Amino acid sequence: MTVEACLPCEGHWFDSVALDLLLAKRSSGRNLGASQDFMSLPFSEPSELQCPRCSEFMLTGTRVGISVEWCRHCKGIFLDKGELERIVEWREAQQQKERAANAKASASVATDAVLIALGSFLVNRE
User: Fold this and answer.
1) How confident is the model at residue 36 (pLDDT cuts 50, 70, 90)?
2) Do 60 and 45 contact (CB within 8 A), yes or no?
């Protein structure tokens, strides 16, 4: 597990394990899986940034306005100052949407079950 800081820009380079552990800690222990989210980006734009681990030039991918640099050689991720917090906020908003959708689906299933039971009761009374 590795994290390296860039003092001039205040950005950080993470291996994917370190990023997931840090995000889980910042999100009340929930593993957000951010590195998997950002690894699914289309990293096609060359970056001027060189990987601090292997010195290869990194690739850039953007999601929800957050540009992430990724090293295709050693799989490290570079985040500029403030991007880690923005990723946490975005993932928490995604999880809230998922919880709301699940709650709505559960309520719909419960309503359907009540209506079926009521219909069955009324049919059997006649």
Assistant:
1) low
2) yes
pTM of the model: 0.64
Amino acid code (one letter) for 32? L
Other Cβ atoms within 10 Å of 44 Cβ, number: 8
| Residue ranges per structural domain of the chain | 3-94
Mean pLDDT (the chain, rounded)? 76
- Exposure of 70 by Cβ count < 10 A (0-12 exposed, 13-18 middle, 19+ buried)? buried
Per-residue pLDDT of 50-89, as tens digits, reads: 988 889 999 998 877 888 898 888 888 898 898 888 888 8
| Residue among 37, 38, 73, 35 at smallest CA distance from 52 | 73
Cβ 11 vs Cβ 79: under 8 Å: yes
Give the integer Cα–Cα distance in Å for 32 and 107.
26
